[in-house]
Amino acid sequence: MQIGGLQKLTLIDFPGKISCTVFCLGCNFRCCYCYNPELVLPEKIKKQPRIPEKDFFDFLKERKKILEGVCIGGGEPTINEDLPNFAWKIKTMGYSVKLDTNGSKPEMLKKIIDRNLVDYVAMDIKAPLEKYSEVVNRKIEIKDIEESVEFLKQGKVDCEFRTTMVPGLVEEKDVIKIARWLGPIPKYNLQNFRAGKTIDPKFEKVKPYSEEYITKIYEKIHSLLS
Ligand code: SF4
């Protein structure tokens, strides 16, 4: 696994677990608002320092008394063929594993869930179905996204879906369509877009929605999700 970053402690990313987050390099999407271009764009990945797997596992050994879980994020972890082996090594050390995914690789998702290599999955829902390719900036097989959603909805593993709201790109009407598509689901989060360094420089200065507005939208769609 090519590791491009490690957050040594997080109390919010893995529900109920004191965790760390490991960031895998590479992604098959190019979401305009992505704030991790150094984990996504090949020309930036080249310059990104790597963390050797051995160092990561040594870190996990040292933190055994403090940490309970490991979040595997990115980039997009499921594009790596060695993800099952990587997750297995983490699990055999006694850690719970959470996967953050864009849901574009349903076969890999099924593989790691069916082999009990993951305890929690957070899948990004980028846009309503008809707008997906525009938002992720790639021509994608939308049936793969649908397949991942349907598989997660079977409830074989704890999961959540989440959408980033981006002014001018993913707005209220889009979130309503997403809620109609997904519902009923156990857990759905709306996230706010972060300005700053983004894959598409046009988004660097876009002003995020207020937290109050996001909460209002969430209240509006709540009944569609339950
Ligand atoms: S936000 Fe989009 S481009 Fe960035 S890592 Fe996630 S899926 Fe990939």
Short recap of the structure:
With 226 residues, the protein is an alpha/beta fold.
Rg measurement, Å: 17 Å
Fourth-tier CATH superfamily name: Aldolase class I
Overall shape: it is globular
Regions with little confidence, pLDDT below 50 for 5+ residues: none
The run of helices and strands is: EEHHHEHEHEHHEHEH
| Class of secondary structure makeup | alpha/beta
Taking the sheet with the most strands, its summary is: 7 strands, mixed
CATH class: Alpha Beta
Fill in the CATH topology: TIM Barrel
**Beta strand %:** 15-25%
Report the end-to-end length measured between terminal Cα atoms. 37 Å
- Which oligomeric form is depicted? single chain
Domains, number: 1
How would you state the average pLDDT, rounded?
97
Description:
This protein has a single domain (3-156, 195-205), classed as TIM Barrel (Alpha-Beta Barrel), CATH 3.20.20.70. The chain has a seven-stranded mixed β-sheet. The relative contact order is 0.14. The protein has helices at 37-40, 42-45, 53-62, 83-92, 106-114, 132-136, 142-153, 172-182, 211-225, and strands at 3-10, 19-24, 69-73, 96-101, 120-124, 158-165, 188-192. Helix 5 packs parallel to helix 7 and helix 8 (172-182) runs parallel beside helix 9. The protein starts with a strand and ends with a helix. Strand 1 and strand 2 form a beta hairpin. The protein has nine helices and seven strands; from the N terminus they run ββαααβαβαβααβαβα. By secondary structure, it is of the alpha/beta class.
